[in-house]
């Protein structure tokens, strides 16, 4: 089984001019905006255009950690977001 690794591990995977997490967010938002349509669809697009520059100012991996903090994602062997003390 072959697995592909990026040429440089410190650079994220890019699709067009978006990072991989941004690309998923953009495609999902546009898809939902087209389905919903009208002013709500345009509001989704406007929120996306405001969110992307803010997200780019955050450190790498910010969305995954934000999802972990909200309880939507679980990291293996890591404590939950509500724990204040961790003993190994």
What does this structure look like?
This protein is mainly alpha-helical. The chain has two domains: 44 residues; 28 residues, no CATH class. Helices cover 50% and strands 5% of the residues. It has three helices and two strands; from the N terminus they run E-E-H-H-H. Strands 1-2 form a two-stranded antiparallel ribbon. Helix 1 runs antiparallel to helix 2. The chain is extended, with a radius of gyration of 17 Å.
Helix count, DSSP H or I runs of 4 or more residues: 3
In terms of per-residue confidence, which ranges show pLDDT below 50 for 5 or more consecutive residues? none
SS strand fraction: under 5%
Q: So what's the oligomer here?
A: single chain
Shape: extended
Average of pLDDT: 80
Helices and strands: which structural class? mainly alpha
| Total of domains | 2
How does the major sheet shape up? Answer: 2 strands, antiparallel
Radius of gyration: 17 Å
Series of secondary-structure elements, N-terminal to C-terminal: EEHHH
In what order do the strands lie side by side in the largest sheet? 1-2
In total, the number of strands is 2
- Roughly what percent helix? 40-55%
Distance between the amino and carboxyl termini: 35 Å
